[in-house]
Specification:
Largest sheet: 12 strands, mixed
Helix content: 10-25%
Strand content: 25-35%
Oligomer: single chain
Distance between the termini: 59 Å
Structural class: alpha+beta
Radius of gyration: 24 Å
Number of helices: 9
Length: 502
């Protein structure tokens, strides 16, 4: 029995014969080799048959507990098709249906950030007409304390994109990151892309996680997120799992190709230290639930991309943002990694926007975010070989007499900085009395794949106990961090590393 039937919030809707809410004209269903799942409601014991442009697409199925469910034959990318559900003398036909790859877009306000809010918004919205095979869908903002069988509402039903649909009110209509990610994928793949947006500003990861996932991280009670400087801009607090219940659980039968995610700002002030557990646990749980509920059609390890946090307050010395950036990678500093396999990450700490009219926590450059995500998807989800999608990351750190040699896993482009690197310095004041602190480690010189930083601000090499890079809320100006890939496109992510004392 599938997860679908376990919902305490399910209502049979008096035997009404219909598709579930998130199927409709203009939709995209997952292409072969996966098989798309269709389901809906009807009177018990009725037989339902699905036809694809007049041809039976699966054996007839019976309605059980008010629900019918069909797994289609594999269909190659393309279309359009008519999809018809037939029950006795009743039929429902969905038109202009395409088959391609379906991606789920989730998170909080930077994912909800509407296309009309970005830099060059008019140009971005004008591109809509050039991508009629990138279809968009958006769930309504709903909360529930029980798992809902179907979405409670739709903000944007399946639609061919238009400038009006991509625009709309601030944070109210279609996600810029989701849309631009989809059209970039289409330009590479040249077959239909379906984008399912389900996100809500100001929300912590706990609201999007099932109780099962939260228990894995020791969060087994109903906790409410307190008001904070970040969350008060958008919401008054959230309870565990309310968005999982209302905005993710109803989608579980959908066959997906993958998901992208932009969230974490709210967790800089709430359960921050837990995020290295809660975020990977949410990914694991979503994967298991979508795989099980789709009858194994959604991959058990489907690709999951995420945006590492951008910036908030330029002069801040609070370490919430750098800490969560690190925790987003399960404390590895990069993705994919051993804990977060088949994931990919877009670094965004160099895209700060101090003059954003939506607050500096909401930078307007979503084009680079979407582009970096699309590189990760092409490499991880689609197996595009020799495609650079990660910025440089250290593979060795050696402490010498008066400097540290940082060797990266690829060639680098470097500019001078006096303070982007820091060393953790043990400064002994008197026997038994010491003071530890992070102090700047100026860049001395660099090579094709290495950077030398000074340790002279420590009294001796024996007192150098750690090294970190870009460990602050706002580490550098727009696209001006000191370390990038050799072509200057992908920024090195922040890292922190303890160093052995000699």
């Amino acid at each position: 029995m599938y997860i679908l039937f376990q919902s305490a919030g399910y209502c049979e809707r008096d035997g009404e014969f219909r598709f579930a809410s998130y199927y409709g004209d203009h939709m995209v269903l997952q292409k072969a080799p996966e098989r798309a799942v269709l389901w809906g409601f009807g009177p018990d014991d009725a037989k339902v048959t699905i036809y694809l442009s007049g041809q039976a697409a699966a054996p007839a199925v019976s309605v059980f507990a008010g629900i019918w469910r069909v797994t289609l034959v594999p269909v190659q990318a393309g279309g359009p098709y008519n999809v018809t559900a037939v029950f006795q003398n009743q039929s429902i036909t969905l038109t202009d249906v395409l088959f391609g790859d379906v991606w789920l877009c989730g998170g909080q306000s930077n994912m909800a950030f509407t296309t009309s809010q970005v830099f060059n918004a008019s140009e971005e919205m004008a591109l809509a007409s050039e991508f009629p095979h990138v279809r968009i869908f958006m769930a309504s903002l709903e909360q529930s304390h029980t798992e809902l069988i179907d979405l409670a509402g739709l903000e944007v039903p399946w639609s061919v994109p238009t400038g009006e649909l991509l625009g709309g009110g601030d944070f109210k209509h279609y996600s810029a990151v989701c849309w631009m990610f989809g059209r970039l994928l289409y330009k590479t793949l040249r077959y239909p892309i379906g984008l399912v947006e389900s996100c809500w500003g100001g929300t912590p990861v706990e609201a999007w996680s099932s109780p099962r996932a939260l228990r894995n991280c020791g969060l087994d009670r109903t906790n409410k997120l307190p008001m904070s400087s970040i969350t008060s801009m958008i919401s008054a607090g959230w309870t565990n799992s309310v968005l999982w219940n209302a905005m993710i659980y109803p989608l579980l039968n959908m066959t997906l190709k993958g998901a992208i995610w932009y969230q974490g700002e709210s967790n800089t002030e709430y359960n921050q230290k837990k995020y290295s557990c809660t975020f990977p646990s949410m990914i694991d749980d979503w994967r298991m639930a979508f795989h099980q509920s789709s009858g194994g059609q959604t991959a058990v390890d489907f690709p999951f991309g995420f945006v590492q946090l951008s910036t908030y307050i330029k002069s801040s010395v609070y370490d919430g943002f750098p800490n969560v950036r690190w925790h987003q990678t399960a404390d590895y500093g990069f993705a994919p990694n051993l804990r977060m396999k088949n994931t990919f990450m877009a670094v965004a700490m160099d895209l700060g926007d101090e003059m954003s009219p939506y607050g500096s926590i909401h930078p307007r450059d979503k084009q680079d975010v979407a582009y970096r995500l699309s590189l990760g998807a092409r490499a991880v989800a689609y197996g595009e070989k020799s495609l650079a999608f990660q910025g440089p990351f250290p593979n060795s750190v050696l402490v010498n007499d008066n400097h540290i040699n940082v060797t990266y896993d690829q060639r680098v482009s470097v500019t001078q900085s006096q303070d982007i690197f820091e060393i953790f310095c043990l400064m002994v004041k008197a026997p038994g009395d010491s003071l530890s602190s992070w102090v700047p480690a100026p860049i001395l010189q660099w090579g094709l794949s290495s950077v030398l930083v000074s340790t002279t601000k420590c009294s001796s090499r024996d007192n150098v106990a750690g090294l970190r890079y870009a460990w602050r809320d706002w580490p550098c100006d727009l696209k001006a961090c000191p370390v990038y890939s050799a072509d200057g496109v992908l920024p090195a992510p922040p890292f922190t590393q303890p160093l052995a004392r000699h």
